Amino acid sequence: MNYRHSFHAGNFADLVKHALVLWLLKERQERGPVTVIDTHAGAGLYDLSGDAVRSKEAEAGVARLMTAANRPPLIEALAAEVAALNPEGGVRFYPGSPVLIARALLSDDRYLGFEFNPPVQAMLSEALTDWPAAEGRAGDGYVEALKAARAVKGPLVLIDPPFERPDDYVRSAETAAAILRHDRTATVAIWTPLKDMETFDGFIRRLEEARVGRVLVAEARLRPLNNPMKMNGCTMTVVNPPSGAEAAAAEICGWTAATLGDAGARAEVWRAG
């Protein structure tokens, strides 16, 4: 599966990922300054009048988010960020994780995002110009995130690969395990598409076998998993989750499935192991 950020920006999976990342960051900030490390940062900010028009995924995701009534608090927090980037209304611009996190940094916090594709890395650096504490760097995010995590205490790490490579599930699990072996106070959040349970179960087994901390899995399934060529659902897997993460994930995934899903959509939050 090739998950190009610009093509899928603002879809239902972005809403799940970004709403939970915002909550994780806020929770971590309550315990002191934090460094957020992002393995696959992308361009940072997306113009939905570009690639996303062809996929129409933003129409079924963020566009519906912004017109939905009775949004729960953690969904409302993401909607407020989208609205702030579109002061004239509408949803032309959507924040990737770098801009979303940069806007939420406190005075002693830091964001460090990595991007392997040089043209995209240039866009990332430009998108972060207004936030001196946020930096986009070129490099293999799996390798560089581990180096960066070893230089700080208690980081919040986001692993969000594009799934262009067949080993992304393996490298995601191995990178998370390596970070947590070094620092058991770190929290690692891993986004994955949900296409078939065999692939995902193998990923979870790797994390369990590493024995580096509790594993919380948050699923949002918009359609039955009967077509492995389509992204019918997504997950956020949080290793070493903070207190309250289960309830936060249930609120986010529950709203996404109920509001954006087809008949039979469901959400589930569970602990592995």
Automatic annotation (TrEMBL):
This is 23S rRNA (Adenine2030-N6)-methyltransferase. Its EC number is 2.1.1.266. Coiled coil: none annotated. InterPro entries: RlmJ, SAM-dependent_MTases_sf. The lineage of its organism: Bacteria, Pseudomonadati, Pseudomonadota, Alphaproteobacteria, Caulobacterales. Signal peptide: none annotated. It comes from Brevundimonas faecalis. GO terms for molecular function: 23S rRNA (adenine(2030)-N(6))-methyltransferase activity. Keywords: Methyltransferase, Transferase. Gene3D superfamilies: Vaccinia Virus protein VP39.
